[in-house]
Design brief:
The chain has five helices and seven strands; from the N terminus they run αβββαβαβαββα. The protein is an alpha/beta fold. The chain has a single domain, classed as Glutaredoxin, CATH 3.40.30. Strands 2-1-5-4-3-6-7 form a seven-stranded mixed β-sheet. Helix 3 links the parallel strand 4 and strand 5. It is globular and about 40 Å long. About 40% of the residues are buried.
Length: about 170
């Protein structure tokens, strides 16, 4: 039963990823100007992390991510470049979705492919629901007050513009 549910969830996410691959900014997910609920998820060691410790303090860029997501891999260089340029002004978070991956598989992936971002684990799907994440590679930018300034999906997103929208 659990395996069937995981296969179904993976299939839905993969379908959404293909369907939304060309989605433009602000076409999906949370409305611009809204404030997402700051839910509690986990770090990769299983410790609770309330997103309120990041949201509403300074601008934040969040990616909903998976080790198996080709669009996420394609976005990585843009995110890394933006982090290098704006990392002192903007918090970069990666929220690993709990579909077809585990904390252990994520840790193994990060050993081989390190990321300069905070990586969190959404084991119960709380962040996915709070941020209305329709797919992996979904990016949400929040300004310093915690309001959504950008949403988008797919590898062709302008990450620089997303970051700048949060800094305004």
């Amino acid at each position: 039963m659990v395996a069937d549910m995981r296969r179904l969830a993976l299939s839905l996410i993969a379908s959404c990823s293909v369907a939304l691959q060309g989605a433009a900014a602000q076409d999906i997910g949370l409305p611009i100007g809204s404030t997402p609920e700051a839910v509690e998820i986990e770090d990769l060691d299983g410790n609770p992390v309330n997103l309120a410790q990041y949201v509403g303090r300074k601008p934040v860029l969040i990616e909903f991510w998976a080790t198996w997501c080709p669009l996420c891999a394609a976005l990585f260089p843009k995110l890394e470049q933006a982090h290098h340029r704006y990392g002192d002004q903007v918090e970069f978070l990666v929220i690993a979705v709990a579909v077809n991956q585990s904390k252990a598989s994520i840790k193994r992936h990060l050993e081989r492919h390190p990321m300069p971002f905070v990586v969190l684990w959404d084991t119960q799907g709380r962040a996915v629901r709070a941020f209305k994440a329709p797919t992996t590679s979904y990016i949400v930018a929040l300004d310093a007050s915690g309001k959504v300034t950008y949403t988008g999906s797919g590898e062709d997103q302008d990450i620089e513009a997303a970051v700048k929208s949060a800094l305004k």
